[in-house]
């Protein structure tokens, strides 16, 4: 079992910045990829960015150059630095961890979500 707790959401004006954090606990040694997703009201949950255990990153096109995902394996924490925020970035942001199962395969774990609201 892995538990994920997000923090850092809030209200910001367009062009502003926020930094999200997600702290993992439990069987953290089995965590592989960590990611941030977001979900706006009435829409599906979409991938924003992910980072592998070795530090390779991938971003959704609309956030490239504005968002930066990073990871501190010693602290079992993943971060999302969000700069040049736009109103369309308004969503609930969810932390995700892909965890290797002792039975083989992988399982997904999710945080509770943190609201990010960007005003125009």
Description:
- This protein is an all-beta fold.
- The protein has no helices and eleven strands.
- The strands form two sheets. Strands 2, 4, 5, 6, 9, 10 and 11 form a seven-stranded mixed beta sheet that branches. A four-stranded antiparallel beta sheet has the order 1-3-8-7, with no helix packed on it.
- The termini are far apart.
- The mean pLDDT is about 95.
Produce a short descriptive summary.
This protein has 120 residues and is mainly beta. The protein is 0% helix and 58% strand.
Mean pLDDT: 96
Stretches with pLDDT under 50, minimum 5 residues: none
Helical content class: under 10%
Distance between the termini: 40 Å
Oligomer: single chain
Largest sheet: 7 strands, mixed
| Count of discrete alpha- or pi-helical segments spanning 4 or more residues | 0
| Total strand segments | 11
Task: Tell me what portion of residues adopts beta-strand conformation.
Answer: over 45%
Class from secondary-structure proportions: mainly beta
Question: What is the H-and-E element order?
Answer: EEEEEEEEEEE
Shape: elongated
Gyration radius, rounded: 14 Å
Supply the key terms:
single chain, mainly beta, 7-stranded mixed sheet, 4-stranded antiparallel sheet, elongated
Any chance you could write out the topology, listing elements then pairs?
Blueprint: E1 2-7, E2 10-13, E3 18-26, E4 31-39, E5 46-51, E6 57-59, E7 67-72, E8 77-82, E9 91-100, E10 106-110, E11 114-119
Parallel strand pairs: 2-11
Antiparallel strand pairs: 1-3, 3-8, 4-5, 4-9, 5-6, 7-8, 9-10, 9-11
